[in-house]
Each structure stands twice: as C-alpha cells, then as structure tokens.
C-alpha cells in the first residue's frame, strides 16, 4: 500500500512482534486444555502524520496491541484453534480503529501435548512436542481474508528407500550415484486456505486444528510410504512434489502449498590408517551433519489460486 508523500513513494506498517501468551481452559470435569502462542501483529494504517509531522493522533500504540492479545485471550471462553484466534485479533483491529486498513497477524503455537500415563490421558499434564503449528491471517477492512497455516521444525528421517542418480556429472562432480542412502530433512510447510472472506470461514471452532493434523498426516504418509514397505524416493525434489501434490489433491479447501525441505546429510564413514581400514562403510555408520545442507523448496498451487 504505497502512497505519495513529498514527491516520494512511501510504505509503512507498525506492530508488535513476539507477544507471548498462554491460555488455559478448564472443563467442569477437571480436564484442562492449554495453548502457548507467540503472536506478532502488523497494522497497515493511515498514520502518515506521525512520520511526517510529529503527530501521533492516528497511532495505535504497539503497547495497546500487546494488551489486546491478552484481552482477547481472556475473552475466548472456549478453546479455539490458533487460526481462529489470529482471525479474531485481526478482525478486532480492522473493525475497532478507523485508521487501520489491514491487519496482519502471525502466530506460532508451541507444541504442548497432553501426557499419556499408563495409557491414560492426563487431566492437566503436558509435555513439549517438536514441530510447531503456524498461522498468518491477513484481514482487510472490507472483510477480505488471506489465511495461511503451516508447520515448522517437522524433522523426519528414513534409513533406506532413497537414492539420487542421473544428475549432471562434470569435472567438479564427486558425488557417487546411489539407490541406497539415508534421507533426512526438516520440513517447513505453508498452505493457503481458499476462504477469501471472514464470512466464508468454517464456523466449527476446532476445524483448523483437525486440518493441521490431517495435513501433517498426509505429508508424513507421503514422505515415508506404507509402514512395512515404505516408498522409494529418487530425490528430495520428487518426494517434495509428491507431498505437495497429495496435499492439494486431498484437501479441496487448500489452494496452495509451499514446502521447504533442506537435505540434511548423513555422510558415510570410512576410516583407514597405514595398517588398513578401521571402518568400512556398509550402510551402517554415518557422520550426522547440520551444515552444509541442501536447500530444496517449491510452491504448488491450483491454476486459479492467487498466491
Ligand atoms: O535429493 C537430492 N537432490 C539434490 O538436488 C541433490 N544434490 C546432491 O548433492 N544430493 C542431492 N539429493
């Protein structure tokens, strides 16, 4: 949203980043639910006078934005998905302030999972899982919506059914071709929902929580293949594409999927000394590494998607 000021193009936004809030809900039977969110808000608003004329009369203070996170968390008397909370917050900013034209709310949910003890779900005990659920809700004054959910830190590894062959060989190429290697990555995924207005969002409070679990399941099933036989991966690229394609085919209300899948290398270990070979690699002993890593990402969207 650029505007012209003093003969320049000018774009601005302001907000509060990384506001941390936890919310607990308790049923009459004593079962507790907890979420922990890291909320970032960014407002596009008509407040150019604060930049140009030392006039803050159109500024929503970022401190007020922070307080609003806690006030809205308090107001949510029933458990709700992180998507619905993001939409509620954004809706507040665009409807409460005449100056605000667009609200952008990003939230990362910390993966607190209910503890199971002796096969029994604990009433109020939780442990931290690994991957994080993310959301971005962009809401305009008109009620137009862009809703993108995601997962980050989804670390996965398979010990076989992966290879890499037929790539370009030149004077700098040393990598042998293989049909047997480890495949490890940390998936970052984003998927954009097709709901393009506040009024079209499904009303069920836990709809997007279920979707998140379902999308994750599809991503994992496609990566690993069936439990007993797996599925062969000819490259990270091919597996990534299958994961994105299956997601779009399975979920009609998702228009666009972006996946980032770094290729995290496990190097074969071979060690020799003058006396001979100490360790000979036989698809068994590896050197795990973080860096350098391959970087592979792609976005797949339906023809009519705007992303
Ligand atoms: O699946 C892979 N894709 C690549 O692009 C690549 N490049 C590389 O060195 N190893 C691999 N593996």
CATH fourth-tier homologous superfamily of the largest domain: Urate Oxidase
Total of helices = 5
Strand order of the largest sheet: 3-4-5-8-9-10-11-16
Could you tell me which ligands this complex binds, including any ions or cofactors?
uric acid
Helix content: 10-25%
Average pLDDT score: 97
**Looking at the chains present, what oligomeric state does this protein adopt?**
single chain
Order of helices and strands: EEEEHHHEEEEEEHHEEEEEE
Structural class: alpha+beta
How many E strands?
A: 16
Low-confidence stretches: none
CATH topology of the largest domain: Urate Oxidase
Our Rg estimate from Cα atoms comes to 24 Å
Fraction of residues in β-strands: 35-45%
Rounded to the nearest angstrom, the distance between the terminal CA atoms is 17 Å
CATH structural architecture of the largest domain: Roll
The main β sheet shows up as:
8 strands, antiparallel
Shape: globular
Please characterize this protein's 3D structure.
This protein has 2 domains: 135 residues, Roll (Urate Oxidase); 160 residues, Roll (Urate Oxidase). It contains 5 helices and 16 strands. The strands form 5 sheets. It has an 8-stranded antiparallel β-sheet with strand order 3-4-5-8-9-10-11-16, covered by helices on one side. A two-stranded antiparallel ribbon has the order 1-2. α4 packs antiparallel against α5. It is globular. Bound molecules: uric acid (URC). The site of uric acid has 7 residues, from α5. Catalyzes the oxidation of uric acid to 5-hydroxyisourate, which is further processed to form (S)-allantoin. InterPro entries: Uricase, Uricase_CS. It is found in: Peroxisome.
């Amino acid at each position: 949203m650029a505007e012209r000021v003093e003969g320049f193009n000018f774009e601005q936004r302001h907000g509060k980043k990384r506001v941390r809030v936890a919310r607990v809900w308790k049923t009459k039977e004593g079962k507790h639910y907890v979420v922990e969110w890291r909320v970032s808000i960014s407002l596009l608003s008509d407040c150019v006078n604060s930049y140009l004329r030392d006039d803050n009369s159109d500024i929503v203070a970022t401190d007020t934005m922070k307080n609003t996170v806690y006030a809205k968390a308090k107001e949510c008397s029933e458990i709700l998905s992180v998507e619905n909370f993001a939409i509620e917050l954004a809706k507040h900013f665009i409807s409460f302030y005449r100056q605000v034209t667009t609200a952008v709310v990003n939230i990362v949910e910390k993966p607190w999972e209910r503890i199971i003890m002796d096969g029994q779900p604990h009433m109020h005990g939780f442990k931290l899982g690994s991957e994080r659920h993310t959301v971005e809700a962009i809401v305009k004054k008109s009620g137009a919506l862009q809703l993108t959910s995601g997962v980050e830190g989804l670390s996965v590894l398979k010990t076989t059914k992966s290879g890499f062959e037929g790539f370009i060989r030149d004077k700098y190429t040393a990598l042998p071709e293989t049909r047997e290697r480890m495949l490890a990555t940390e998936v970052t995924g984003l998927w954009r929902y097709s709901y393009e207005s506040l009024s079209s969002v499904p009303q069920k409070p836990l709809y997007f929580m279920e979707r998140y679990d379902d999308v994750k399941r599809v991503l994992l099933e496609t990566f690993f293949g069936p439990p007993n036989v797996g599925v062969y991966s000819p490259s990270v690229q091919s597996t990534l594409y299958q994961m994105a394609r299956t997601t779009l085919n399975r979920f009609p209300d998702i228009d666009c999927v972006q996946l980032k899948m770094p290729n995290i290398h496990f190097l074969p270990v071979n060690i020799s000394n003058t006396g001979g070979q100490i360790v000979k690699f036989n698809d068994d002993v590896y050197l795990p590494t973080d860096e350098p890593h391959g970087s592979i990402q792609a976005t797949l969207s339906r023809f009519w998607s705007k992303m």
